[in-house]
Structures are given as C-alpha cells and as structure tokens.
Amino acid sequence: AQSVTQLGSHVSVSEGALVLLRCNYSSSVPPYLFWYVQYPNQGLQLLLKYTSAATLVKGINGFEAEFKKSETSFHLTKPSAHMSDAAEYFCAVTPGTSGTYKYIFGTGTRLKVLA
Amino acid sequence: DTAVSQTPKYLVTQMGNDKSIKCEQNLGHDTMYWYKQDSKKFLKIMFSYNNKELIINETVPNRFSPKSPDKAHLNLHINSLELGDSAVYFCASSQGTGSGEAFFGQGTRLTVV
Prior knowledge:
The complex is a heterodimer. Chain A is mostly beta strands.
C-alpha cells in the first residue's frame, strides 16, 4: 500500500524567504511522486514530478524538489517566496510501474506568504 | 483549449434529488478518474476507469454511478443526494501505462441543501 504524509497543514513565510513544504511517502514499490498546487476555486496544477530519473527535480514557478530514498522524502522548496505562491500544495504518489490507476494525495499544506 | 473540462462548475440542489456531472478530456489519455475533495481539502479517489472499464471503486456508496461511454468521457451520476455529498468533485485523466501526471479539471462544487 502507498501513502503520503505532509507535515504541517499550514505554513507561513515572509515574502522573499525560503519555502519548504515537507512530504514523506510510503511505498512497497519504487514510486512516482508529484507536487500539485491548487489556487482558490481552481483545479490542481502540476508543479513537478519525480519518475525515477534525476533525483533533483525542477518545476514551474521556481520550485524544486529532491527525492531522497533513504529518508523516503520528497520535500518541495523555493528559494524566495512570492505573494503569488500563496495556495494549497499537495504531494501525491503512485506506483512506478505500468498500469497506474490511482494517485494518492497527502492532506495538503496551505502556504501563506506575508508581506 | 481546455484539456479536462467538467460541467457544471457549480451545482446547488435539494436533498433527495438526482444529478449528473459530465467530464471530457481531449488529451488522448486512456485513464480517467473521479476525486472528491471535502471541506478540509482532502482529496480522495472515488473511481478510475481504463479504456472504459472500471478499475477502481473506492467503497463509494452505490448512489454514485460512473459511466464511461468512450475513453474521452467519464460522467458521474448521483442518486438521492444527501447533505454529506456536498463537496468539490474533480475529474482527472492520465496515461495509465506511462509515468505521467494526472491532469485535473476545474472541479464541480456540489452543494446539497
């Protein structure tokens, strides 16, 4: 069985500060991992994904994440927060094998950016 | 050109009514999903279809009946609506045999009064 844990349901950072959103996964098979962002009243938009290639993954809007197998983590970072980054962020996992029919999401982290 | 589109965006209805939500994707994907997002933003999979066949049914009440007339469409019909059905319902699609991400629609906010 697979699962995802996001530590911190709410994170506040000052504009220009480092953003760190935590995600730990559990998987019996090599996983594929994703970070999605959800702005108010909108659907989910992919930020980045890990699919067993490079362990440091760069995404849109300056975000990146590093897959660490030893720590079963896939934390999301951004060097400098912008007001427009305020949103809900979801980490998701799916089996890294053929026949992917289920994406399992974490409980989400709401990012607040302070002026 | 919207990749995954679902209609309607908002749905307000009374308890006991029956309603449908439609979803279409133009990405050529072979797998489609319905997710439910509750008031705490938790996303839970309800159903997944691969090539029009039901693959996953996550212990959803049988008042919920998905239908996939073809690979590009997955509709959700809900009978005898209850207050607890109020949520945002998301349709999504992906290429089931690939390593790609799921693409999501804009969501349908269902409010049962």
